[in-house]
Amino acid sequence: MQTILITGTSSGYGLETARYFLAREWHVIATMRRLDATSLPSSPNLRILPLDVTREDSIAAAVEAAGSIDVLVNNAGIGVVGAFEATPMAHIRKVFDTNTFGVMAMCQAVIPQMRERRSGVIVNVTSSVTLAAMPLAAAYTASKQAIEGFTGSLAHELGHFNVRARLVEPGYAPTTRFAQNTDLRIEDLIPSAYADFAAPIFAGFASPALTTKEADVAEAVWAAVHDTSGQLQFPGGADAVALHAARQG
């Protein structure tokens, strides 16, 4: 039985991915900052570990407790929506600490065992904001674009050791807690000068046409884990698939 470690499984894409792999008889290590098993199914194949990807000691403890890891899914992330000029630099650093440096730190912690075994898969979850420029998401986009470039380069160097690196790019889901893990209010991030610009954008966010589901992302992770063709990017959700196709075309 193969083992997958997933970060950020307390809700959303991480939670659904954990459920998806458990249903397919994988050994799942679900990690989260604050332990909460209420949303996860009871299973002898499930372990829950505390993990804060912004802390080196927490990463080291989780990786040691996990033991042999066949697949690492870096899903933990935080977001911010708003005008860039109104976004505090302290929060931008917080976004990068989790979305960018946290992913890199997790990779660095797990790569040695995969390299030594000459097997393993790393899946880094980014966003469809990397597929097309989107307004009111400049800092978030930057944190995710960094991981796109990072993963592409990593795929080359780890390929030498038969270790695969892949990207999953979720589309936008109206129910996603995009600004989770932040105490910033959206009102503080949209100055009055931006009100007319922002109004139709937020109306679009609520559109039912944006149909990415958590299951779409879990399926994309599954596809990325099992792919042996060398494909790097796996869009998740109808809007992400469309953006990816347009970019390729």
Structure commentary:
There is one protein chain. The protein has 249 residues and is α/β, with parallel strands linked by helices. It has a single domain (3-248), classed as NAD(P)-binding Rossmann-like Domain (Rossmann fold, 3-Layer(aba) Sandwich). 45% of the residues lie in helices and 14% in strands. The chain is built from eight helices and seven strands, in the order βαββαβαβαβαααβα. The protein has helices spanning 12-23, 56-66, 89-117, 138-159, 186-189, 195-205, 214-226, 238-248; strands spanning 3-6, 27-32, 46-50, 71-74, 121-125, 164-170, 233-236. It has a seven-stranded parallel β-sheet, with helices on both faces. β5, α4 (138-159) and β6 (164-170) form a beta-alpha-beta unit. α2 runs parallel beside α3 and α3 packs parallel to α4 (138-159). The radius of gyration is 18 Å and the shape is globular. Mean pLDDT is 92; it is low at 175-180.
Q: CATH superfamily, please?
A: NAD(P)-binding Rossmann-like Domain
The CATH topology assignment is: Rossmann fold
Strand content: 5-15%
Q: Could you tell me the radius of gyration in angstroms?
A: 18 Å
Main sheet overview = 7 strands, parallel
What is the terminal-to-terminal distance? Answer: 39 Å
Quickly count the helices: 8
Widest β-sheet, arrangement of strands: 3-2-1-4-5-6-7
* Overall pLDDT: 92
- Poorly predicted residue ranges: 175-180
Named CATH architecture: 3-Layer(aba) Sandwich
Identify the CATH class: Alpha Beta
Structural class: alpha/beta
